[in-house]
Amino acid sequence: MKKIIEVKKLTKDYGKVRALNKFSFEVKEGEIFGLLGPNGSGKTTAINSILGLLKITKGEIKIFGKNMSPDAYDIKKDIGVVLQEVAVFDELTVYENIDYFCGLYITDNAKRKELIAEALEIVGLEKYQKFYPPKLSGGLKRRLNIACGIAHKPKLLFLDEPTVAVDPQSRNNILESIKELNKNGTTIVYTTHYMEEVEFLCNRVLIIDNGKSVAEGTIEQLKNMIDIGEKVDVEFINIDEKQIKKIKELKNVKEVIVNDNLVTIYFAKKNQNMVNLLELIKQEKLETITVNLQTPTLNDVFLEITGRELRD
């Protein structure tokens, strides 16, 4: 597949502070590419550098095969950006807001009307065209924010936390809209604090920490990087220290965490762990309330690689 973004050894210094340190990655045409990092990891600096909003210290940035720079307007016209903070005009209606932002790129009136109608349909705001933003809920405002960023049909779209603090209905609408945009040919770079969104949307994920790329791959590839095979939560009616010791002695057990009668067991490998555990429970005549098996999540990957929760 064609490379849409190529970042090579990107370095950005703020005085003596190095925000990005030889940071490299690629995004291929048609991908939804997740960019994840804890606060202060360099994620925002990386995005602003790629967009030509910051002067970089060293490195190379190419978009659509061309060198990116602050005045590369021929490249920027094919890029859409939807930032975390809603940026629309309160004195303009929904339709007028989309028309304004689309008009920055599309001067033909007939073409612009067509594109606005498409954007309204994608985000589900057809019924709200005449509404002013102060009359919209937080979720509807975010949908409007996205419509303003996609109306000119960009080839490449940056979405920064587009579902923060929205209601479940709007969140689902936004995620489905992103899927639809990608299906129609838009390559997307996506940042979020919600791991389930990454697992739902993204083809590949890059984890950035301390200004460096620390892990990259598909969801499955990232999960295979960490030494957690399975996690089992068992809530017992009663369990004693001797029985907990026997659980710890089971094959492949990496760690056991006990919180009263709730026991969490981490297995290093996926190999008949549940069978062995249930056999022990039967032998010891232990009574359980719930038994819950979990395979590694993307959050487990992130925590093990960075040592931090994504929301830290």
Descriptive report:
- The chain has 312 residues and is an alpha/beta fold.
- It is 34% helix and 29% strand.
- A hairpin with a 2-residue loop joins strand 1 and strand 2.
- Helix 3 packs across helix 4, helix 3 packs parallel to helix 5 and helix 4 packs antiparallel against helix 5.
- The longest helix is centred in the middle third of the chain and has 16 residues.
Task: Specify the overall morphology.
Answer: globular
Number of domains as seen in the coordinates: 2
The CATH superfamily of the largest domain is: P-loop containing nucleotide triphosphate hydrolases
Q: Strand order within the widest sheet?
A: 6-7-8-3-9-10
Mean pLDDT: 92
Task: Record keyword descriptors for this entry.
312 residues, alpha/beta, Rossmann fold, Alpha-Beta Plaits, 2 domains, six-stranded mixed beta sheet, four-stranded antiparallel beta sheet, 11 helices, 34% helix
List the helices and strands and how they pair.
Blueprint: E1 3-14, E2 17-28, E3 32-36, H1 43-50, E4 58-63, E5 66-67, H2 73-76, E6 79-82, H3 94-103, H4 109-123, H5 138-150, E7 156-160, H6 168-183, E8 187-191, H7 195-201, E9 204-209, E10 212-217, H8 219-223, E11 230-236, H9 241-248, E12 253-259, E13 262-267, H10 273-283, E14 288-294, H11 298-306
Parallel strand pairs: 3-8, 3-9, 6-7, 7-8
Antiparallel strand pairs: 1-2, 1-4, 4-5, 9-10, 11-13, 11-14, 12-13
Helix pairs in contact: 3-4, 3-5, 4-5, 5-6
